[in-house]
Specification:
Order of helices and strands of chain B: EEEHEEHEHHHHEHEHEEHHH
Structural class of chain A: mainly alpha
CATH class of chain A: Mainly Alpha
Order of helices and strands of chain A: HHHHEEHHHHHHH
CATH class of chain B: Alpha Beta
Number of helices of chain A: 11
Shape of chain B: globular
Number of strands of chain A: 2
CATH architecture of chain A: Orthogonal Bundle
Distance between the termini of chain B: 39 Å
Largest sheet of chain B: 6 strands, mixed
CATH architecture of chain B: 3-Layer(aba) Sandwich
Bound molecules: adenosine-5'-triphosphate, magnesium ion
Shape of chain A: globular
Strand content of chain B: 25-35%
Helix content of chain A: over 70%
Radius of gyration of chain B: 18 Å
Oligomer: heterodimer
Number of strands of chain B: 10
Strand content of chain A: under 5%
Strand order of the largest sheet of chain A: 1-2
Largest interface: A-B, 14 and 25 residues
């Protein structure tokens, strides 16, 4: 039993990493653009799709698929921003209309993939091999997903804290108006943030595809988990997104030993409601 | 240096600013005085391109009326906005850094040093979050952030609002200092006493219209201005 829990913890870490990466993008888009991006999960799915198609149909080595997924999905992010976000965001009810517009964009992406490839999962060959650590055996792919995820989060922190773009991004997150006053190109910074978030989601999709297989519905499921993570971890908080993402992956994975996957998911939504009742701004907010 | 020609702003049917003509020369301080809602902030925002305005705007003889805020800042215009609007969760240093635009980048270290000398209170609080500064310190940071772009013209919107008299005096000293450096200053103030005391030229706005303009010292003596904004009759009348 103890071994099983350990094994599930190890598995949960890699899945949790994808939740963390998804939530990171969502929370950043929320913090900087002040919108909720309902198409976000489809960027994750597209990342998985690029990896699945390139490895299975074109024989491209897995590691070469990661930059390809990031670049192609950046283009999808750019188009979504141009067509579904920018034109509506400035309107009086912009933040609400954007919900519907990004939801529509997500559906279009999803239905297009579903119509072309069908719902059947596609197996993706990632990094082969298994490592045994005492009672726990982990595939190299899972280890890679965890390490690469940590690396991405670290790079992200460096961009945010150490680069001029990062400083400008934080400026826009704190005050749109003040950023305009000092002459920052606020629209450009917002678009870049949106695209960067799409890239991170795509990489998360590319990391998980060899573990869980690709299917067109993967974005939907994970995005909902991403939203839960972002709300529990406080909208706009990056540490909140990362810690709650990992926590959720671990919790879900261990709980599924005892109560099954579906009920474990239901418990997580219950946790969301409890959080909203007692800490409406999330666990990582400065004021409750 | 800065010249606006028939500058108008309206947010709907009612104009907030109607066909304003004014100019500020290098080393000149122009005060824009008027009651709440007179259109002072609208004027400064339109000059920065933060709200849409109609009419001409020239900086150094170049037309900038169609330019983005970004290129106006690059061209040498800077604003310290009403309500300060510092970046609350960033340190004093980071706020100053953000004010330093590409054109001024090469002089970044000199500029920071200059600001910290100009505002010694900020030097002591370099690492402190701007949101936790006192109102006066935030005001100084907002002005410092604007000066980090090495502007030719600085627009100050209500820099003394809610500040203690001693800080108001410091800000007046600072404005005199800016004048000596040859910067053009446009000062929007409800504190007419301070504004007319420090300015060379004054413009009085009423519901978006320029009703009086002239040497600040003369405007300060004008009986209608005195009763409306200075809370006292003119010296001639009381004499
Ligand atoms: N964003 C806006 N939308 C609609 N009306 C506005 C807007 N901003 C200002 N106004 C209106 O324009 C007029 C001028 O406002 P403005 O802020 O320029 O005045 P002000 O002289 O700066 O006043 P104060 O001394 O109170 O700062 C006011 O009647 C105000 O209600
Ligand atoms: Mg005002």
């Amino acid at each position: 039993m103890g071994d099983l829990v350990l094994q599930q913890l190890a598995n949960g870490l890699s899945v949790g990493m994808t939740y963390a990466l998804i939530a990171l993008g969502l929370t950043m888009v929320f913090g900087v653009l002040h919108i909720v991006n309902f198409a976000h999960g489809e960027f994750y799915m597209l990342g998985g799709l690029v990896t699945a198609l390139l490895t299975s149909r074109a024989g491209v080595p897995y590691l070469a698929c990661l930059p390809a997924a990031a670049i192609l999905v950046a283009a999808a992010g750019w188009a979504t921003d141009r067509l579904a976000v920018r034109p509506v965001i400035g309107r009086p009810d912009g933040a609400t209309i954007v919900l519907v517009a990004t939801f529509a964009a997500g559906l279009i992406i999803n239905e297009t993939v579903l119509a072309t490839l069908g719902p059947a999962p596609i197996r993706v060959d990632g990094i082969a091999g298994v490592v045994k650590l005492g009672p726990v055996s982990l595939t190299w792919q899972r280890i890679f997903a965890i390490v690469f995820g940590i690396l991405l989060i670290a790079i992200f922190q460096i961009i945010l804290r150490r680069t001029e773009f990062g400083r400008q991004l934080r400026a826009v997150a704190q005050s749109d108006y003040a950023s305009r006053v000092i002459g920052l190109d606020v629209e450009r910074i917002k678009s870049l943030t949106f695209i960067l978030a799409a890239c991170v989601a795509a990489l998360a999709g590319a990391l998980i595809a060899p573990i869980l297989s690709f299917n067109a519905g993967m974005g939907y499921h994970t995005a909902i988990h991403g939203f839960v993570v972002v709300v529990i971890g406080t909208m706009g908080s990056i540490p909140g997104a990362v810690i709650c993402g990992l926590g959720l992956g671990l919790l879900e994975s261990v709980a599924s030993i005892f109560i099954g996957q579906e009920i474990a998911s239901a418990c997580i939504y219950a946790l969301l409601i409890v959080t909203l009742l007692f800490r409406p701004n999330g666990v990582f907010s400065r004021s409750a | 240096m800065l010249k606006c020609i028939d500058l108008s702003v309206s947010y709907g049917p009612v104009p907030a600013l109607a066909r304003l003509n004014l100019s500020v020369a290098a080393g000149e301080v122009v005060a824009l005085v008027g009651a709440n809602g007179a259109g002072k902030s609208s004027c400064l925002k339109a000059m920065m391109g933060l709200v849409p305005g109609k009419g001409g705007l020239e900086l150094d003889g170049k037309d900038i009326s169609a330019a983005t805020t970004r290129s106006r800042v690059e061209a040498g215009l800077a604003l310290s906005p009403e309500g300060r609007h510092v970046f609350p969760e960033m340190s004093v240093m980071e706020n100053l850094e953000l004010g330093c635009i590409p054109r001024a980048r090469a002089r970044y270290h000199d500029l920071v040093e200059e600001m910290l000398t100009l505002f010694p209170r900020l030097r002591e609080r370099q690492k402190q979050a701007a949101g936790s500064l006192s109102g006066g310190e935030q005001q100084m940071l907002a002005i410092g952030r604007a000066l980090m772009s090495e502007p030719k013209v600085i627009l100050l919107d209500e820099p003394t609002l809610g500040l203690a008299p001693i800080i108001v005096d410091q800000i007046a000293d600072l404005i005199n200092d800016l004048r000596e450096r040859g910067i053009a200053v446009l000062l929007a103030e409800q504190n007419a006493e301070m504004a007319l005391g420090v300015a060379d030229t004054a413009c009085v706005l009423e519901t978006g219209m320029l009703v009086k303009t002239g040497a600040a010292r003369e405007i300060a003596q004008d009986s209608s201005v005195r009763s409306a904004y200075l809370g006292a009759p003119s010296e001639e009348e009381s004499a």
